[in-house]
Amino acid sequence: ETRLSDFNPWLAERDLAIPQSHSFASPDGLPIEGWLLKPPGFVEGRQYPLVMEVHGGPHAQYGWAFFHEFQVLAGLGFLVFYVNPRGSDGRDEAFKRAVVRDWGGADYQDLMGALDQLLESADFVDRERLGIGGGSYGGYMTNWAIGQTGRFKAAVAMRSICNLVSDYAQHDIAPWARNELGPPPFPDLDELWRRSPIRYVNDVTTPLLLTHGEMDLRCPISQAEEMFGALRLLGKEVELVRFPGESHDLSR
Predict the structure, then answer these.
(1) What is the pLDDT of residues 102-138, one digit of tens each?
(2) Which residues carry out catalysis?
(3) How far are the Cα atoms of 6, 7, 53, 60, 238 from residue 3, in angstroms, in the given order?
(4) Which of 8, 11, 26, 184 has its CA at a distance of 20 to 30 angstroms from the CA of residue 106?
């Protein structure tokens, strides 16, 4: 192969974190792929804080690619860890459909299992400084995770969902809710409520930052307001940053 072009010469003046591929096993034996970014200037023998990022969708996927948000975090000295749990694209149809009507179930176990396996093999991760973040479905999973575990010291939920009951008919792609969560008008209110992060706010101990565009039609800002209000009423540590005029593509 011979390189013929150089469309981004400015990159020569910057330190990029190069993704390192990893393979993990889900609790039920499914192979789960993931990647780790080490901060530029990584020093062997030193421990670094780690941020676990969760993609949206849930039918999206990560890969060996340049992702601006992750490069910013790595440049600030963080390890950045990201995986494709069941429900992700890039595999067969069964793997993609495995998350349907199981949000917060096996997908969450895939994520936490991959993190546990990384920690077992990586002595350079500071286990006392783990963070989690994500947008859209990744924001849902961030809200969900901090209601299920106290292992994370900070969380950032971007353009997130917290209440599947109230969200079901609010967003701009109503057929999506039918396909993901069950037939309209509501599949099973108890089922939706069991899988709603806001149900578990009493158990949240992780400081949470919510960021949301006020013109987000995919995940309405009311979802962030619900999570923010519930945590504030309980005296939990939470902040909400609103972006006037911004859409679901805010961080892009």
Answers:
(1) 999 999 999 999 999 999 999 999 999 999 999 999 9
(2) 136, 248
(3) 8, 11, 32, 30, 48
(4) 184
